[in-house]
């Protein structure tokens, strides 16, 4: 394969195919972020604090499994490449375990908690096995940062579309399929999204290519990790990504409580088949698609890290304004949420493109490309953020004396308002401010791309 062909623009088909992989991911992350805490507490009957502990404990395993999967993927050699094979095979257990979380067997309280631990940890391991390689694929899909940013744009358009489908149709499907039995409704609804997720990952596998082909990876895992942590920009990016995702998921996990209890939603449809929770979430997530779509245009005027800083601070302001919205101002709250998620759409698109920039930077510095290990931080950020973002509202609900389906005190209500607005505002602000210290700017990226192209030309053709 010629280097000229490797540097050619990505086709629409390939960018779309890559984007569908994150739609598959967000059928799970979106479902978990919006409804997992609610399902465990209000439907399956687990205590909020116990759920919070479970979500955090599972991240101890992720702290090991994510970088291990990155190291394994970097060392994989197959006729399909390093990363694409996992989209084909790991998607199957991913689908099965996602369904298992919401199967909802009628065990004792202790049995239910054990079942929740086993299935949640299981699905997060499956998520690692498919999503670390999926994210690493972006780093080898093109040698050009501009093309990778375009592919990332399609990725987060797909992610936003997946989130919208979950937000719009999850609660109506639960009601319709369950016929009043929420456990059955969640079980059947998740079965649909699990099947769709597997199919979409297979489409991604079939429609993408690995264009950057390097010699087999021969350095030790310890050396790879040591070199990675010397990359200051990667460390800052990883911490920023964790803070931002925790803020987002804390917000998402709070929405159903915020709308149900603070805005007095009774679960009835207010537009066609959609209740207020579905409308609030779906309209908000439409903003993520808008944000992802406009990102390539914004990067013509700003460096990526400066744009992340600007958008995080805008999101912070919108969340603070949201704290003061009155209970009867539903559509004002919807508008603020949509604008906030639009800024997040820009931020998350840039963050994942920046992880691949860090992989290029690492290869430029050391001569070794560790795409899987480098982007495994993004998967850990997503999963740790999903868990901690879901756990913190659980702890807050327990602290302020929340009892499901009962009238709430003023202190409890204010706790719900704070966990839906001020808490994520603080996390977005911190995540954005870290970008003041990020060092990989436009000028350096151009130099890196030019020098790496020269190096790769001297490598034997595959």
From TrEMBL:
Matching Pfam families: MFS_2
Ranges annotated as spanning the membrane: 20-40, 46-65, 86-105, 117-144, 156-178, 184-206, 227-250, 270-295, 307-326, 332-359, 380-404, 416-438
Keywords, in A-Z order: Membrane, Transmembrane, Transmembrane helix
Source domain of life: Bacteria
Limits of the Major facilitator superfamily (MFS) profile domain: 14-443
KW Transmembrane helix (keyword) present: yes
InterPro entries attached to this UniProt entry: MFS_2, MFS_dom, MFS_trans_sf, Na/Gal_symport
Similarity remark: Belongs to the sodium:galactoside symporter (TC 2.A.2) family.
Protein name according to UniProt: MFS transporter
Species, as recorded: Aliiglaciecola litoralis
Lineage: Bacteria, Pseudomonadati, Pseudomonadota, Gammaproteobacteria, Alteromonadales
């Amino acid at each position: 394969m010629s280097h000229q062909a490797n540097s050619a623009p990505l086709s629409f088909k390939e960018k779309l195919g890559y984007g569908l992989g994150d739609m598959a991911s967000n059928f799970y992350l979106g479902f978990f972020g919006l409804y997992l805490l609610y399902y465990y507490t209000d439907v399956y009957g687990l205590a909020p604090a116990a759920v919070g502990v479970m979500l955090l404990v599972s991240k101890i395993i992720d702290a090991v499994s994510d970088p291990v999967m990155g190291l394994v993927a970097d060392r994989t050699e197959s006729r399909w490449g390093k990363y694409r094979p996992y989209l084909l095979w790991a998607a199957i257990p991913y689908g099965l375990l996602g369904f298992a979380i919401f199967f909802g067997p009628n065990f004792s309280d202790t049995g239910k908690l054990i079942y929740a631990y086993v299935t949640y940890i299981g699905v997060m391991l499956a998520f690692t096995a498919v999503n670390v390689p999926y994210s690493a694929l972006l780093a080898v899909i093109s040698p050009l940062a501009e093309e990778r940013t375009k592919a990332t744009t399609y990725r987060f358009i797909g992610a936003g579309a997946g989130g919208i489908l979950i937000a719009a149709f999850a609660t109506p499907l639960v009601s319709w399929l369950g016929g009043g039995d929420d456990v059955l409704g969640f079980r059947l609804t998740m079965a649909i999204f699990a099947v769709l997720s597997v199919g979409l990952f297979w489409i991604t596998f079939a429609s993408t290519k690995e264009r950057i082909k390097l010699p087999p990876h021969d350095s030790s895992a310890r050396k790879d990790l040591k070199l990675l942590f010397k990359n200051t920009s990667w460390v800052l990016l990883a911490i920023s990504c964790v803070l931002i995702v925790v803020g987002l998921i804390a917000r998402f996990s709070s929405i159903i409580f915020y709308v149900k209890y603070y805005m007095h939603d009774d679960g009835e449809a207010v537009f066609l088949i959609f209740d207020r929770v579905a409308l609030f979430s779906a309209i908000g997530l439409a903003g993520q698609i808008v944000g992802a779509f406009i990102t390539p245009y914004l990067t013509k005027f700003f460096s990526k890290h400066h744009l992340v800083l600007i958008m995080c601070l805008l999101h912070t302001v919108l969340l603070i304004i949201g704290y003061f919205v009155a209970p009867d101002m539903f559509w004002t709250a919807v508008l603020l949420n949509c604008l906030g998620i639009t800024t997040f759409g820009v931020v998350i698109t840039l963050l994942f493109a920046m992880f691949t920039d860090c992989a290029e930077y690492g290869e430029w510095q050391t001569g070794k490309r560790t795409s899987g290990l480098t982007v495994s931080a993004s998967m850990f950020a997503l999963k740790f953020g999903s868990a901690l973002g879901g756990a913190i509202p659980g702890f807050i609900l327990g602290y302020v004396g929340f009892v499901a389906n009962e009238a709430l005190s003023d202190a409890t209500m204010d706790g719900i308002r704070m966990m839906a607005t001020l808490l994520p505002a603080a996390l977005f602000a911190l995540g954005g401010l870290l970008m003041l210290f990020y060092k990989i700017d436009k000028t350096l990226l151009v130099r890196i791309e030019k020098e790496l192209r020269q190096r790769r030309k001297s490598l034997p053709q595959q």
